What we know:
This protein is an all-alpha fold and about 200 residues long. It contains eight helices and no strands. α1 crosses α2 (about 25-45) and α5 (about 105-135) crosses α6. It is elongated and about 55 Å long. The two termini are about 35 Å apart.
Amino acid sequence: MSQSRTPRTNNESIRWWRTWATGHRVAAAILAGIVATHVATIFGYWFPGVGLTRLDWNTANGWVYVPFASPLAKFAIGGVFHYLDGILFAVVYACALHPVLPWRNSLAGNLTKGLVFGTLLAVISVAFMTPQVYGPARGADPGFLSLEAGGTYILTVFVWHWVYGLHLSLIYSPLPSTELSEHTASEADDGRDESPALAKGH
């Protein structure tokens, strides 16, 4: 019995979360931004294990904000700004971009939106942030579209932001308006006062 009920329980939990996220978009986006940034950041340190470039955005931001600080201070202070960026981008995504992207708010549609957003951030990273901000902060010139940094670096930046977008959309996954209306109506039906029917039985 318990095994047969598990899929239904899981589905109900997912639906409960998606309903909550639909009604609390900013709070859900902040949580999603924290989770997505942290997971992607950890992946950045693991990438050399699969032949990609190690990405340490904490230290990279430290070179921008506190270039003369110690390595530990660069990592810590840069990490604060890195996580704030991830959270702010998540809120912008939830409030401004997610509603206008053409895909339906299904699970697959939300995942597609997140990956598209991650791709957009990756393009900004290799086209502007790396050659104009992160590279010069270290006295390097990655060149146009970061081409001087190499193809592996560019691929790694895209993979990193896909990981971010994937986890962002897994946490921030609001319901379609039609399903939300059905859910609200169902809750209203469940909450109706049944006392008149009970009274008839006395």
